[in-house]
């Protein structure tokens, strides 16, 4: 007999997943009444992608955009087109999860009885009810919507491919957070203060009261993945909400204070964790390989300090691996080495670069002194005032700094050789490739501050050099092509009239 293997498809939630543990709690069946958040289809069967239900209410939203609930300040939403009305629809039941427990809202579509599709851009919990925000398409109108979503009308709800992808990612990250927090608590006695299900594909994080050593991080990751490989099952226990139960104490821990749905859900990871939560959770942790980013981020607040431990799992982990691998491969290719050699090669390049920079600086200092000596020797000292000009070609991004080094060397040589004659020097520097956008820098210095200012003003007026100076130095620049026959001659003309 041929060997056969039966693999249970991952798209089916086991019937044991959702357990109403109170004998007095039952699922509301009146199709004109909404099932409260806590007992929604998305919470009873997190893998369900489609559902047929009935409309309970539909109205035009008073606000043009989905209200923020005060927690989504960072979320930027595009301004809606003035014609696109927003509807608020409550259904008897839904598979579109309204944000809660730190888990963002699902997106999806509603199908009305005439087959028309309506885009649910967000769902939110108002008290105990899930409200679907439907943005009308260009061709859709409010009157049709109000008729098609009148109380009792049959409505199809679907997550669609995008909606399910988004939900699967949220579930992987959310269930992983429960697992991670439980392991941190049992293994290290470290409590989770808060957590954030960040937007895909960034890593999510838990906030902890203290930092963890690399060994602790590795041990937590190993323990979490041991449970993952065991494939521990996850189920939900639902009962009536005990009014004495602790309401929400942090951003996403406990039961929100405005919740009026009347049920308490406890997410149970078999033998690992029991935690009150309204989120949608996978029926098993079997494919939630957890990766903890080894570097933690410290946060200092007014009264407390905490750290963020970042983690990845599920589709987000694969995306991260793909992008990290792509970056590493491309770096390895640039460095012409294998991936493992990249850090060493990059270090080499950085070290070499430092040495080269140092050598360039040393050579520049030597060259500046040589140019200064040449300049000083180029004009006979008996000539009285020394007026000099020198143009350079230099592709350095700091050409002016080099001209400045020449000036400094020149001044010290003048002092060294006890030159008494007054002097005025104009240095200029252009890049080798000349175009209308190339920049030529000009440095002017001399023994007489007044003359320096006079020549600076001439450069501004006659050569359109933009610049200024103070005391014995003046610097500026102009944009355009430098030609010795044009700019060089113009400069010489200005200098000819200078009388020192
Ligand atoms: Zn949770």
TrEMBL record:
Gene3D superfamilies: 2.40.30.130, 6.10.250.550, Threonyl-trna Synthetase, Chain A, domain 2. Residues 60-79 are annotated as: Disordered. This is ThrRS/AlaRS common domain-containing protein. It comes from the Eukaryota. GO terms for molecular function: metal ion binding; nucleotide binding; Ser-tRNA(Ala) deacylase activity. Keywords: Coiled coil, Metal-binding, Zinc. It comes from Trametes coccinea (strain BRFM310). Residues 346-373 form a coiled coil. The lineage of its organism: Eukaryota, Fungi, Dikarya, Basidiomycota, Agaricomycotina.
């Amino acid at each position: 007999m041929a060997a056969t293997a039966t693999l249970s498809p991952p798209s089916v939630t086991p019937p044991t997943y959702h357990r109403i543990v109170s004998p007095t709690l039952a699922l509301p069946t009146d199709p004109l009444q909404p099932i409260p958040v806590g007992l929604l289809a998305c919470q009873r069967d997190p893998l369900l992608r489609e559902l047929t239900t009935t409309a309970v209410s539909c109205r035009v939203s008073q606000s043009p955009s989905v209200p923020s609930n005060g927690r989504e300040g960072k979320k930027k939403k595009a301004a809606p087109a003035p014609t696109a009305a927003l509807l608020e629809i409550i259904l008897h039941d839904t598979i579109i999860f309204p944000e809660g427990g730190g888990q963002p809202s699902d997106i999806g579509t509603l199908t009305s009885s005439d087959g028309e599709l309506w885009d649910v851009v967000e769902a939110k919990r108002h008290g105990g009810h899930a409200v679907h925000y439907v943005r009308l398409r260009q061709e859709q109108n409010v009157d049709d919507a109000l008729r098609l979503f009148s109380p009792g009308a049959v409505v199809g709800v679907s997550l669609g491919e995008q909606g399910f992808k988004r939900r699967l990612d949220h579930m992987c990250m959310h269930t992983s957070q429960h697992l991670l927090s439980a392991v941190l608590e049992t293994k290290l006695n470290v409590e989770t203060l808060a957590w954030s299900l960040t937007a895909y594909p960034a890593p999510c994080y838990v906030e902890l009261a203290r930092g963890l050593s690399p060994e602790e991080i590795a041990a937590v990751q190993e323990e979490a993945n041991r449970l993952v490989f065991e494939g521990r099952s996850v189920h939900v226990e639902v009962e009536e909400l005990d009014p004495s139960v602790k309401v929400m104490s942090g951003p996403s821990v406990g039961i929100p204070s405005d919740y009026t749905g009347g049920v308490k859900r406890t997410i149970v990871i078999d033998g690992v964790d029991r935690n009150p939560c309204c989120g949608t959770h996978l029926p098993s942790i079997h494919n939630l390989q957890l990766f903890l980013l080894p570097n933690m981020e410290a946060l200092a607040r007014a009264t407390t300090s905490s750290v963020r431990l970042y983690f990845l799992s599920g589709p987000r982990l694969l995306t991260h691996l793909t992008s990290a691998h792509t970056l590493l491969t491309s770096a390895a290719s640039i460095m012409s080495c294998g991936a493992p050699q990249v850090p060493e090669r990059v270090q080499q390049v950085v070290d070499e670069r430092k040495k080269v920079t140092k050598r360039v600086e040393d050579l520049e200092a030597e060259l500046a002194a040589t140019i200064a000596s040449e300049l000083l020797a180029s004009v006979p000292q008996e000539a009285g005032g020394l007026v000099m000009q020198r143009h350079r070609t230099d592709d350095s991004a700091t050409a002016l700094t080099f001209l400045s080094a020449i000036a400094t060397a020149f001044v010290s040589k003048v002092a060294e050789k006890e030159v008494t004659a007054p002097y005025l020097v104009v240095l200029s520097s252009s890049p080798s490739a000349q175009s209308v956008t190339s920049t030529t820098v000009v440095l002017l210095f001399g023994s007489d501050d007044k003359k320096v200012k006079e020549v600076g003003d001439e450069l501004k007026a006659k050569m359109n050099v933009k610049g200024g100076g103070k005391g014995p130095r003046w610097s500026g620049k102009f944009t355009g092509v430098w030609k010795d026959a044009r700019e060089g001659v113009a400069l010489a003309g200005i200098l000819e009239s200078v009388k020192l």
